[in-house]
Amino acid sequence: MNPRLPQLDREQQVLHRIERARQRAARIREDRITLAHGSGGKASRTLVEAVFLAAFGNPLLEPLEDGAECTVDGARLAFTTDSYVVSPLFFPGGDIGDLAVNGTVNDLAVTGARPLHLSASFILEEGFEVEALTRIAASMRAAADAAGVQIVTGDTKVVQRGKADGCYITTAGVGLLDRPVRLGVVHARPGDAILVSGPIGEHGVTIMLARGELDIHAELASDTAPVHGLVAHLLDRTTGVRAMRDATRGGVATILNEIATAAGVGVVVDEDAIPVRTEVRGACELLGIDPLYVACEGRIVVVVDGAEADTALAALREHPLGEAAAIVGRVTDDQPGMVLLNTGFGGTRVVDLLVGDPLPRIC
């Protein structure tokens, strides 16, 4: 008798329970919104599916990509929107202003679009310093110039003192889909490779340390950056790209689960292949957080035809933002809907969606 059979049976039972839970219709059990509903994990997904998809469901929204594809008089456009509530407003490597611009540019870029125009709306708290707002606006202008986009419209509201946290920003963006490709995680298929464009988790850990609530010191800066140039370079070099996502809230783990769920495939990732800076790994160990769940703001996850994996990797590494890119996993036809991690200790564990919110207000 094989002594591992009972253990394998238990593992299969766990996998089946998780799969059954995922297939149930989305239903919010809480009576009130919690911070977990903004984490990018299970609670966020349930909120989106049970409330917003139920109310707004349509073919453009239902893929739940980072941007929607719209066609206007024969022109293919990408459209996206995002809100930024990061705390603190200023942090090593950036601030809420360039974060808002870069985040929206990146959401457009990973659809395959060429970003063109942004809107910017501000919710300001009574008493917020004009000097700080001026710094934020200047940062947004610099980020927009660097990304080759213009902020062409916007809005401003002011709320009473104590009703906000200084400054919140919402940006929306439109870009032109002028390449003959249609990207989306639903296109992932067995045999595909999964790549990340660089070390993960730097933004989320930087924000946490910048709050000064923990006695942890590390030379870290946010990785916030516009990735449209990196994406364009990749798409110029290979026709094998199936999908791209920028790994913000919920980190790379959330993207991997979205790939597995949307395409009905399995995803297997090798822990030792995932690029993580020593400072990020050390801080995460002290905080009890897995770097896979920590937000990035200048990194993309790419699904590419397995035959084109080396070409795609070389293309990413040719660009300054992709110098540390790596092939981290593969798409399989085993355990559809599941993400498995081959650990550095020789075992395997399930990488599920976040349940709580370990790092709130990071973007």
TrEMBL record:
Pfam families: AIRS, AIRS_C. It comes from the Bacteria. Gene3D superfamilies: PurM-like C-terminal domain, PurM-like, N-terminal domain. Signal peptide: none annotated. Residues 71-176 form the PurM-like N-terminal domain. Residues 189-335 form the PurM-like C-terminal domain. GO terms for biological process: protein maturation. Belongs to the HypE family. This is Hydrogenase expression/formation protein HypE.
